[in-house]
Design goal:
By secondary structure, this protein is an alpha/beta fold. It is 50% helix and 12% strand.
Amino acid sequence: MKAKNRFQMTVRDIAGIILAHIAKRLKAVGFILTGVFLGAILFLYLIAGEIYEYQDTVDGVHLPEVDAIVCLAGGRGRIAAAGDVWYRYWELAQVPLRGAGRTPSPRTVPFLYVSGMGRQSNWGVLAKQVRRGVLAVLSPTDVVLETESQNTEQNAALFVHYAQERSWEKILLITSRYHMRRARLIFDQVLSQANPPIKIETLSVYQEPFEPGEWRSGLHGVRVTITEYLKWLYYKTFW
């Protein structure tokens, strides 16, 4: 009986040693995985600013003729900025273009196409996000509200069908600076398949703190920038 008890104690001891060894190994693996995770976050923190390394084709002053201003809703200030740009086109249209050997002709005011505002959106919702001076001359007939798309890929897919129906040839794409690089990639891919391909000009919206020297100033800027960088890498690599 005593021998049996000694055997049982021995089995328990062995089991305890094995479990302790496993726990020690798991703890070590946990430390390693934590280190890898923190290292990956630090690496992304250092390189995510690459998404801001994009040069717009338009400076906001010298505006090319386009058929539509395409504003990707979703970021604060985008619609207001797009409204201001539309107003600038409207002002230019009031002054005839003059050139050597040409008869003065008015510029065409592009449509303001707002993509992805949400299914409950309407003219009233848009009007609250546009400056009063712009709203004084902007009318619902100047605006196209696309309310079905829920991401950038859907923004582009729905827009290209609408643009082809109206024979649009060139657009000015407006979105936040952190979002522009991925948006341009997606729109280039989708709009290049139109017949004929639709040309794209771009103008990024200033949005604090999403600027090259500002995004690390707060947790929100870091989170949004790293998330957008990972999305851009995905589309760049696999899409």
